[in-house]
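Rotation project, supervised by the postdoc (A.L.). Task for the rotation student: set up a whole-complex structure prediction and record inputs and outputs verbatim in this book. Inputs entered:
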Amino acid sequence: MARPRAAETRKRTRIQQEKEDRILDAALDVFSAHGFRGSTIDQIAKAAGMSKPNLLYYFRTKEAIHRLLIGRLLDTWLDPLREMNAGGDPLSEICSYIRRKLEMARDYPREGRLFTNEILRGAPHIQEEMSDLKSLVDEKAKIMRGWMKDGRLARCDPHHLIFSIWATTQHYADFDVQVRAILGPARSGEGRFEDAARYLEKLFLDGLKP
Amino acid sequence: MARPRAAETRKRTRIQQEKEDRILDAALDVFSAHGFRGSTIDQIAKAAGMSKPNLLYYFRTKEAIHRLLIGRLLDTWLDPLREMNAGGDPLSEICSYIRRKLEMARDYPREGRLFTNEILRGAPHIQEEMSDLKSLVDEKAKIMRGWMKDGRLARCDPHHLIFSIWATTQHYADFDVQVRAILGPARSGEGRFEDAARYLEKLFLDGLKP
DNA sequence: TGTAATCTTTACCAATTGATCAAAATTTTC
DNA sequence: GAAAATTTTGATCAATTGGTAAAGATTACA
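Outputs recorded:
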């Protein structure tokens, strides 16, 4: 190889491990705040505490960083939905799904915004993942329809039910500044997530009771 | 004025009227799809069917276009909430609010995405409007609390109730590609908004019944 | 119809930005 | 401790992009 780059050679060194992690964390900060095109390599490099050429030694292109982040994200983003199983009690399955999604919005807001950014742009980098997503959602929708048939869940469109859970929970990551502006400083502590959880649980429980 | 620019002189001509409208429409297309920094003047000019310098004859800067769009947007975006009045029946007031917001997501998805873009970036251009927003929401929250006290609406946190309506309706504009991908081509017609309306109405009605 | 105002185009500039290269500095390995 | 491998830096490039200048084309109006 003419000009060796990190990770193109034998195995990852200690420095590679460290620096790559720092870069990805910095990039998550910057991408989630400014979007892909709104972010510059310089910004990311600065946030990671290194020079631009140095960063480019670890990742060939800006897109390579973005791709890796998006890929990682999708891997874990759907875990809560996967965990919903037909065997459990419908309403408590849905409640814990809501709780888990809300926890993700609280604990990983950057990832959430990165995802929303990508979707807002028309999901250009995750076309195939979209069809995997459809399969998963269809599968879970089928389970829900089973619950409805058994009279254990209110009859409704399961796809839109899932959308509404995504929307209400993701809102607390994507619209964070708006939520804080409206709740005011006094209620903008971490407690707002507990208030949200309480409210959403009530809404969906009573709204979906058979 | 050394180099006169459109609208800096006496009154708007026919051509100014036409071209400015075309530019704003094109800019809404481009900004809502790519975000502010992701959009170029060239792109907007091309979409508006004119050259870049020609466009810049009508708007001094890219930011001027964006500012105008954002300003216009906020003017109308909150109208549905303003219309919610204490005199009506609580549940039907909330239902028509949901319906109106859903109609906006259907009829003005570009505006919706423009707004989400702005909030995602931390709302840098609409700081003051945010406090106006807070006043409006607080006022409506007060009305809702009155309804709850009278036993005409289920007790819950009215701020989070409003958030949940925003989130579930806006979702159909912002996450449109995802919604379409999951519903599949057969159910991605305009009918999806009616399905959504039916579902949301049921959810909120049963979820908020006293 | 002629003239003043408005509009459009061509050519251009300076700053930013993604990316490269080769050499210097550092770390790892034997 | 020296050689080899890896990491860092500084200089630089080409493309993109926001914006300007000035001359030419068109339109409105008396």
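Student's summary: Chain A touches chain B through 57 residues (CB under 8 Å).
Supervisor addendum: Residues 4, 6, 9, 13, 15-16, 19, 50-51, 53-54, 57-58 of chain A lie near DNA strand D (CB under 10 Å from a C1').
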